[in-house]
Design a protein that fits this description.
The chain has 18 helices and eleven strands. By secondary structure, the protein is of the alpha/beta class. The structure holds iron/sulfur cluster (SF4).
């Protein structure tokens, strides 16, 4: 039986949006007016990179408020979704040996590449492996300090937003010897560049809503290459419905004026240069590598391992892990196409059938930032 406890009708979502945000109706009207005045496009495709933007768009029914000619596409901005399955396989193996694996709750049910009974760290723990959920890297450090006779490995999943916290503790020399870090950290601007280069025929983008949290670290200037090199207008956006609607409006305005540029709509949080202290920590503690993105491929200069100075804590170096092209798509799962914005979750035959938030089959259904999970929990659907 399909359980869809959170779904309500689209009219309820929109009523909620307008009640909470009286300006939203005006901006939506302006979007319709503008869309009617933009020439030269059959369809305008705008990609929101970030899972949290996807949540805002889906939860408030913003897609249904758009004119026919505008399509909002979810991008690869869910770090759990793009974390390689072979990292999970490796951690499952270690968790049955001498290590305790420390993971965020978000990655706990992330499937590896095996289709057998132990697919995730969650499954491994239920079979007696040593796996624990932590809330932060501080939490991991505390556990390792309190149990000096055990070996721990921390599964570090995330984008630029989560990298500085781990970096700061390493930088201060506060990480005990019995704790190593498997860095699945990924940098976001390189993946946008990769999408525009590698999939230029398949993915046509006319505008990008850039991630607000990531930009608070890397700075809005990190996205300048989109208008400069690809003629794609970009808006760094906050996460309230009003922020997202305004960002769409600004993109349309730039398209109408044929002047692609960079607008920072999230100035209350994001500076052009970002957070200089966090950027310094990232540059100091990590080494940039070509890294594999699940379902996408090996992307130049898009990943981070710990730099040589911290090599005694770096799982890539300690265990000789290599980044490589890898076929880790799960049979029947179309998550690779979902994260590239090539299809919608509802186009996967397993969506809310064999793959649900309660029992995720593919990676995009695991995390609260995964597009499939967001759609499953927020979209009114008739199945
Ligand atoms: S619904 Fe599940 S199986 Fe289908 S693409 Fe999404 S994560 Fe993969």
């Amino acid at each position: 039986m399909i359980v869809m406890k959170m779904n309500v009708g689209i009219d309820v979502l929109i009523k909620k949006l307008y009640e909470r945000n009286p300006l939203a109706r005006d901006i939506v009207e302006k979007i319709h007016e503008l869309a009617g005045r933009i020439e030269g496009y059959d369809r305008i495709k705008i990609m929101n990179f970030c899972g949290t933007h996807e949540w805002t768009i889906t939860h408030y029914g913003i897609r249904s408020l758009m004119p026919e000619s505008i399509e909002l596409i979810a991008g690869p901005g869910c770090p759990v979704c793009i974390t390689p399955g072979y990292y999970v396989d490796f951690l499952i193996k270690l968790s049955f040996e001498e290590y305790t694996v420390l993971t965020y709750g978000d990655a706990y049910k992330l499937p590896g590449t095996s289709l057998k009974h132990i697919r995730s760290l969650y499954d491994a723990r239920s079979k007696g492996a040593s796996v624990e959920v932590v809330y932060s890297f501080y939490d991991a450090v505390r556990k390792a300090r309190e149990n000096k006779n055990r070996k721990y490995i921390f599964f570090a999943v995330g984008f630029e937003t989560t990298m500085p916290t781990t970096a700061e503790i390493l930088y201060r020399g506060e990480v005990p010897e019995n704790l190593v870090v498997l860095s699945a950290y990924r940098f976001t601007p390189p993946i946008m560049e990769y999408l525009l280069n590698e999939y230029s025929g398949d993915i046509i983008l006319h505008g990008v809503i850039a991630p607000g949290h990531v930009s608070a670290i890397v700075g809005s200037r990190a996205w300048e290459f989109l208008p400069k090199e690809y003629n794609v207008p970009v808006v760094v956006s906050g996460f309230e419905p009003i922020d997202v609607l305004l960002s769409i409006y600004f993109i349309l305005k730039m398209l109408r004026d044929r002047r692609p540029g960079l607008i920072n709509e999230y100035r209350r949080v994001v500076k052009p240069e970002g957070n200089l202290y966090a950027r310094k920590l990232i540059a100091e503690v990590y080494e940039v590598i070509d890294a594999y993105w699940r379902g996408i491929g090996l992307v130049d200069k898009s990943g981070a391992v710990l730099s040589k100075e911290y090599s005694s804590h770096d799982a890539h170096r300690i265990f000789g892990l290599e980044e490589k092209e890898y076929k880790d798509n799960i049979p029947g799962c179309k998550c690779g196409e979902v994260v590239l914005g090539l299809i919608k979750p509802t186009q996967c035959p397993l969506f809310l059938r064999a793959c649900t938030p309660e029992k995720p089959y593919g990676p995009c259904m695991v995390s609260v930032e995964g597009t499939c999970r967001i759609w499953a929990e927020n979209i009114p659907l008739k199945l």
